[in-house]
Amino acid sequence: MPEDLDATAKSLDRAHVFHSWSAQAGLDLPVIAGGSGTVVWDHAGNRMLDFASQLVNVNIGHQHPAVVAAIQAQAAELATIGPATANLVRGRAAQRILDKAPDGFAKVFFTNGGADANENAIRMARLHTGRDTVLSTYRSYHGNTGAAIVATGDWRRMPNQYSRGHAHFFGPYLYRSEFWATTPEEESARALHHLERVIQSEGPATIAAILLESVPGTAGILVPPPGYLAGVRALCDRYGIVLILDEVMAGFGRTGRWFAFEGYDVVPDLITFAKGVNSGYVPVGGVIISDAISATFDDRVFPGGLTYSGHPLAAASIIASIDAMEDEGIVENARRIGDDVIGPALAGLAEKHRLIGEVRGEGVFWAIELVSDRATREPVGTDVIGRLKKEMSSRGLMPFAADNRIHVVPPCVVTDDEVAQAMSIYDEALTSVEEDLS
C-alpha cells in the first residue's frame, strides 16, 4: 500500500515537533503539503481557502512564481554570505523598501523576523536618546524575544518578564472603551490624555520610545480613531521621545497601503517590518531608520547584529515580492476588495448574526468580534470559538482565531469570488453554532 503522507506528517509532528504558544498534548493540527495563491491543500488533495494567510504574512499569496524563481536563482548564484560584506542583492532589497518609506529614511537594518526587528529598534531608541523606558499598549504583540515580549501587552508577556524598563498604557478601542467614550473623536482625545498622563507619571526624561502597532493585529485589528496616531507623534515631539511604529503585520499591502501609517497623518522615527515584505517565503525582518537616528551611529558603534542579517535569499525574495506587488497592482487590490467586497459583506453578516458584536478593519485586515450578548458585549467563550473553527474547517476554510474573534485576513491577491465563498462559509458556520446555542 502507498504511504499515507498526511498520517505520516501528523505522526512525525506529534512525536518530534514542539509547537509555539501551545500545550503539547492533544494537538491535532492540519497538514499542509502545498499551496497556490489563496488556497492550500494536504497530501490527499483536500483544499482549503487560507483566510489566515498562515500568520497574517502570506500577503502575495502562496507560491508566487516570480518570488520562487528569484529565490531559486539566488540560491544558484550565492546561497549565503556574512553581514560584514557588501552584496548587490542586499543593497537592492534595502533600496526597494526605502522607495516605499517616507522622506527622511535612507538606511535599513535587516533582521531575521519581526521580533528582533522590534528588539533592535528599541536598542536604537535607547542609545539615541540615552533613556531607558519603553511605553507600549496592553493590547499589543511585538514578538517573542527579550525586550519585544515585555513590550507586548497581552498574556504572553507575563511568564517572560526578564527585560527592564517597560511600562504599558491603554490604547484606543471604542467598542470596549477604557475611557467611557461614545464617539471615535472622544476615544481619540481621551486615549491621548491618558497617554500623556502616563508619560508625565513615568517621567518624560526617562522615556526612550513609544512602540505601537500602527494597526494592532493579533490584539483585535484595532483601527486607530481619527487623530490618534498624529496625536501620539505630537506627544513624542513634545517630550523628545522616539516613535517606533510596528508594521510587521500591518505593512506591505495588508491595509491596502504599503505602510498602514500612511493613512493616519503620521511619520515615525523607526519603522519595523517583516511578514508581508516577502510573504514569509524566507525568514526576514528589519528596521527602517530615520536619518536622525542613523546619524547617531555614524561615528559610534551600533552594538547589535545577526549572522543572517541581509541574507541573500531573503533579499532576493524581497525584491521579487515588491516588484510583483507593484506590477500586478496587489496593494491596490487589497484596498479595493476591503472597501467594496469584504467590508460590505461583513456588515451584512453582522446584521444577520446575533453572535457578532462588531466588525472592523480595512484592506484585507478585518476582525469579527463575537459576543454572547450584544447589550453587555460579553465575549463568547473558547468553546464557541472552537466550534466555529471546526465548522469553518470542515467547510474548506482555514480561519484565524484570536480570543473571542475571527480575523478575516486573506492574502492581498484574494479575488471577489474567493471572498464570496469565504463569506458563505462564515455565514453557514455562524448559523450552525447559533442554532446549537438556541
List its salient traits.
single chain; 13 helices; 16 strands; 40% helix; globular
In helices, the fraction of residues equals 25-40%
Major β-sheet annotation:
7 strands, mixed
Radius of gyration: 22 Å
Number of helices: 13
**Morphology:** globular
Q: Segments where pLDDT lies below 50 for 5+ residues?
A: none
Class of secondary structure makeup: alpha/beta
Strand segment count: 16
Strand proportion: 15-25%
Secondary-structure element string: HEEEHHHEHEHEHEHEEEHHHEEEHEEEH
Question: Mean pLDDT, rounded to whole units?
Answer: 96
User: Span from first to last CA?
Assistant: 47 Å
With strands numbered from the N-terminus, the spatial order across the biggest sheet is 4-10-9-8-7-5-6
What does it look like?
The structure is a single chain. This protein is an alpha/beta fold and 438 residues long. It is 40% helix and 17% strand. It is built from 13 helices and 16 strands. The strands form 3 sheets. Strands 4-10-9-8-7-5-6 form a 7-stranded mixed sheet, with helices on both faces. Strands 11, 12, 13, 15 and 16 form a 5-stranded antiparallel sheet that branches. α7 (184-202) packs parallel to α8. The longest helix is centred in the last third of the chain and has 23 residues, at 330-352. The N and C termini lie far apart (47 Å). The model has no long low-confidence stretch (mean pLDDT 96).
